[in-house]
Amino acid sequence: MIEFKTNANKMLKLKLLGLFLLTIILSLMLLNSLSDKMIKGTKGNILYTSILNYSIPILTQGNNIGESEHRLNIKEEVLNALGINISNPLSIIAKEIPFFKEALKDNGGGKPELNGLNPFKLNETNIVKDEEGSNGSIEVSDASLKKTLNPNKPEVLIYHSHTTESFAPGDANSKDNSKNIVAVGDVLTSELQDKYGISVIHDNTLHNDMYTLSYKRSRETVQKYLNKYGNFKLIIDLHRDSGVNKDSVTATVNGEKVARFMFVISKDRSNYSKNKPLVDRMIATANKLYPGAMRQTKWGDYIWWYNHGSYHFNQDLSDNVVLIEMGTEMNTLDEAQNTAKIIGRLIAEELNGKK
């Protein structure tokens, strides 16, 4: 009887050891698949951190990413990396039946069409509708808002907490400032200075080489300029958002495609009530001049809200700080730079317009 129990214990230990080894092998295979297909750059950093936060909740408070403006669904991202789109059953069937792979056609934005079997569609000529976000008769710039430039008195500070955020057709993140969000900031700077006489400091410091420290580092940058120049009339943290299909973040203004934009606000700070009216005015001006150019959020407005945000997104440093997100990684650089022209006009209306 003792020998039987000993053998049973040995078998149980061997089974547990085998299960442990099998789990490790499967985990390594999954991570290898994910690393090849998705887990790269900033998005990978966010997902890895999200997984750690989910597994070890105490870390969430320590790394300030719990309320980053980027939002990832762990289950959805893992399934996407494995080629499974839970909103499109064809993606699952296609893995087993080759015929359906042909039905999953790319829509030009890097994602397959939801229904690739070409269901019946009405001809557009049979439908009379207003085209949302189309304002072909509206001029972006306004020469009457131009004043004499005073380069010795900078009025606007532009910086980027996530400096490497980039656009299609390239990688989602790039240190090449001719391809990333810095290039959009360059256009905004030119618009403000050349067309409206507004002096600008455009800082292109790389803040997100360690993603979870992005806002800590950009905070140091903003504080440096505040110490040197005093307050600015406007401080802009310019971003590119991620993870949304292109149609929902693209509009047409003056015959040109633009990346829709929105504001991000941290609410739980002492100067919220002084800062919020600035955002409200810019939103009102945008909707008046360029209806459809702004991106509506799940709250029904044009602001993505956070109670705190990472380091309050630096909005506690001045009443004049705003964070603007435009488009996603599926928008082109041209579309984002067209949006910069619109934002330039909004800033000119705010700073140079008649009060």
TrEMBL record:
Pfam family, any one: SpoIIP
Under what name is this protein listed?
Stage II sporulation protein P
